Each structure stands twice: as structure tokens, then as C-alpha cells.
Amino acid sequence: MRLNPTLELRKNRLTKNFYQSLSTFLHLILIKISSSHMNTQEIANRLVDLCRKGQNALAQVELYDDDIVSIESHLSRYRKTKGISKVQRKTAMFFERAETIHKYEITDPLVVDNHICFKMIVDVDIRGLGRVYLEELCVYHLKDGKIVKEEFFYNTSGMNQE
Predict the structure, then answer these.
(1) Could you tell me which of 75, 57, 69, 93 has the C-alpha nearest to residue 146?
(2) Nearest to 58 by CA among 101, 98, 26, 28
(3) pLDDT tens, position by position, 65-108
(4) Which of 5, 57, 79, 133 ranks highest by number of CB atoms within 10 Å?
(5) Is the whole-model pTM more than 0.90?
(6) CATH number of domain containing 44
(7) 102-112 pLDDT, tens per residue?
(8) Domain annotation covers residue 6
């Protein structure tokens, strides 16, 4: 028994979407598995490479532990964020509010034992805040090949800089 053409087309689209979603899901699992075999220097290089390309979300999928803890030095609302989905949302909200990025630089990473550190310079117009210039020290703590904690240290004197 053949379905009518409209239903068959809908069924084919659903099947295609399902397999595309499954393929994406499996790809992300493979990325997570392969990234768990990297040493700290390799993770540092990958993190910096992805962040320099603006692919912070991919870095989080590949390199972060599900129970990640993110600590901001000054922002009260997001002072401490726990869990990958909340950290991803916090990052997405920053980029959603960024209207113009004037400068976004990341230094080469410094690696000591299970810690990664680099300096990030951000000069950006943020909706609701105006122009913000931050020099930020980013510190990452690793355990079992995954980033389990990130900490950001910066001076807020660059806020609302015109």
C-alpha cells in the first residue's frame, strides 16, 4: 500500500531529519570520546584555536565536563554557574548581546600540570551596557581530560567605556 504523495514526502523529510540529527549526535559523541584522550597541552591548543575562531560553543561541547563550574570575578548574577547547559546558555547570552566586536584577542596558552591559562582582550559594544573593554585572565582546571572549572579574572573599570 502506497501513501499519498504528500504523506510520503512528509515521511521522507522526517526520516531525513532524524538521520541528520542522529548523525550530528554521533559526531558529537565521537568528538567527546576523542577529546578525552588529549593531554593538557593539546586541550589548551584546541581551546584557544576554537575560541579564536569564535567557536566557543563547540569548545564547550568538545572539551568541557558535564558538571563544569564557571566563576566570574565580578558579575553577581553569574558569579558561579554550574552545569554544562547553564554555562553554554551564559556564553550564548554574551554573544547574543554583543552588537559590535571591535577587538577579540587570545594569547597563546600557558600550561602547568592540569591547568590552562591565557589572556583574552575583548572590546565590544554590548546591548544595554554600551562599549566594554576587558583584559581578562582565563584559567581552566582539568580532570580526567575534561575542563571541570573555568575562572575569569578582570577589572571592571573598562565597563561603559566610550
Answers:
(1) 69
(2) 28
(3) 999 999 988 765 668 999 999 999 988 888 889 999 999 999 99
(4) 133
(5) no
(6) 3.10.450.50
(7) 999 999 999 99
(8) no
